[in-house]
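Give me the 3D structure for Putative glutamate--cysteine ligase 2.
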Amino acid sequence: MLRTVGVEEELLLVHPDSGEPRPWSAAVLDRAAQDDPGQAVFQRELFGQMLELATSPQRDMAELGAEIVGCRKEAGRLAGEIGCAVAALATYPLPVDPALTRHERYHWMAGRFGSAMVDWFVCGCHVHVSVESDEEGIAVLDRIRPWLPVLRALSVNSPFWQGRDSGYASFRSRLWARGPSAGPTELFGSAERYRRRVADMVASGVILDTGMVYFDARLSTRYPTVEIRVADVCLRADTTVLVATLIRALVETAARDWRAGRPPPDPSVSLLRLASWQAARTGLEQDLLDPVTMRPRPAVEVVRALLAHTAEALADSGDTVGAEEAVAQLLHRGTGAREQRSFLERTGSLRGVVVECVRRTQG
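Predicted structure for Putative glutamate--cysteine ligase 2 (363 residues):
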C-alpha cells in the first residue's frame, strides 16, 4: 500500500498592498473556528505574523496538490476578511520586529534563547510520510541523510533578510541552524538509540521537550510518520508537491534498502553540514555536493541522480512522469529564490517583492 503524505506549510500574514507584516493570526484562527468549530487545518505559530496550515494524509499526489492549493486559498480568504493576505515567504525581506505569540511555551523559548528568537521569524515546509514502525522510521532516517540537502536546494525561497540580499538562496535554513538542536544527525542504528539520544537532549535542560528536537529529519512526536524539515516554504504549491513526492519516494527507497539488508551510507555530520550549507547558498544555480561522493557536481546532475535513486519507488507509486515534469519546469522557471530576485529587478523594491509573492502564493 502507498505511504501517506501530509504537508505543513508556514505562511506570513501581510498587508495586501503595502506588504507590511500583520500580527493577526489569532483573528484569522477565530474566523476559521467560527466557520468550522472543529477545524484543525490552521494553527498558530511562534509569531503573530505567521499562520500554519496542515493537510490531511494523502496517497495521491494530485489530491495532495489540490488540498494545498485549497488550504492556501482558504487562508487567503480568512486573512482577507480582516484586511490582510498570506504570502509563502520563507523569510520576510524587510526589517521587522515580530510579535511573539502569547503562549507559555513560546515565552519559555524567548527567555531561554534571547535575541536569537528574532532569527526564527522564518517559514518552513514540513513533510510527514507514514512508516510502519519506529524501527522502520529510524532505518529511513539513517538512509536519507545524504539526500536532504538536495531537497533543500529544490525548495530555496529566502534570499532576502532585514532589508538586504543575504547572498543565500535559503537564508531561512542558515537562521534556523543557529538553534541548539537543529541540523543533520549521525546514524542512530535503532529506535532505542534514537529515543535515548532524544531523552539525553531533553535532560540537558537546553531544550524544553522532545518537540524542540529540531533535527533535519526526525520521528514525529504526534503521528506514525517520519518528518522531513529541510525545505523552505515554497513560493508555488507545485514545488511543494514535487518536494513531497520526492520525499515519499526517498522514504520508500530507504525502507526497501533496509529490508534488503543494505547498510546506510555513512557520511560524517561535518560533510552533511557542508552539503546543507552549499544547498542553502546557491540552490540549483551552481554545484551541489553529490550525496554519494560528497564532491562538487552540477546541481542539475545531482537532481537527476535523486530521480534515478528513487526511480523504482516513483514508478510503483505512479509518480515518475509527474516528478520528471515538475523537475523540468522548476529548472526552467527557477526556484522561489530566483523568482524573488527577478521580482526585485522588475519592481525595484522589496515591498514589491512581497506583493508579488502574495499573488504567487494563491496563484
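The chain has a mean pLDDT of 96. Let me know if you want a second pass.
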